[in-house]
C-alpha cells in the first residue's frame, strides 16, 4: 500500500478499517479537546474515494451531529462543489482536527483555532484516513489543512490551485476554506474568493474525469 506522506509527520499511524478508526478516534484522549466536545467528527465518504477533501476543524453544527461540513461552511462548499460538477457522495470529506474547539461568550460557543499541539495530537487520525482511503487526489481547504499537507511555508493567497505531487500515485492542491470566505468583510472579496474556490474545484473535477478514463493520466 502506497503512503501519502504529510508534511508534518506522525510517530505512529493507527491501523484498521475506517469503521475501526472511527471507533478508536471516538476514544482519543491525546489532547484536551475531547472534554468539551459533543462528538468526535470523523471523516465520511466512500472507503476508496478517489478524492479526499480535508478541512480544518469542526464547527458547532458538526459538533452536534458528528458529521463533517454540515454547517454554513458546509452548505457553501456543497454549492461550490455542485457548480464545479463534483458529487459529494463520491468524495471523502474530513478535517485536520476532529473535535470542536470553542470559547464561551455569554451563552454562545464561538469557534477558536486549535493550537499547534492540538493539531499535532490529531494528525494520527488524518494520516490513518489517508492510509486507508488511498485517494489519488487530495484537496486541502484552508491554511491549517494546506500547511499540514505541504508545510508551514505554504500560503493560500499565492499558492492555491497549484497541484503538488504527494507520492507516486497521488497529488494534492489547496484552496480557500468556505468558512474563510464567509468571514471576509467585503462582499466583492467574498465573491472573488468563492469564484476562486469553484475554479480550483473544477480542476479537481477535471482530474477526476481523467482518472475515470482507462489509460488516461491526470491533466
UniProtKB/TrEMBL annotation:
InterPro entries: UDG_Type-4/5, Ura-DNA_glyco_family4, Uracil-DNA_glycosylase-like, Uracil-DNA_glycosylase-like_sf
Keywords: 4Fe-4S, DNA damage, DNA repair, Hydrolase, Iron, Iron-sulfur, Metal-binding
Classification via SMART domains: UDG (SM00986), UreE_C (SM00987)
Keyword Hydrolase attributed: yes
Highest taxon, organism lineage: Bacteria
Domain named Uracil-DNA glycosylase-like: residues: 42-202
Position of the signal peptide: none
Keyword Iron: yes
Similarity section: Belongs to the uracil-DNA glycosylase (UDG) superfamily. Type 4 (UDGa) family.
Name this protein carries in UniProt: Type-4 uracil-DNA glycosylase
Source organism of the structure: Rhodanobacter umsongensis
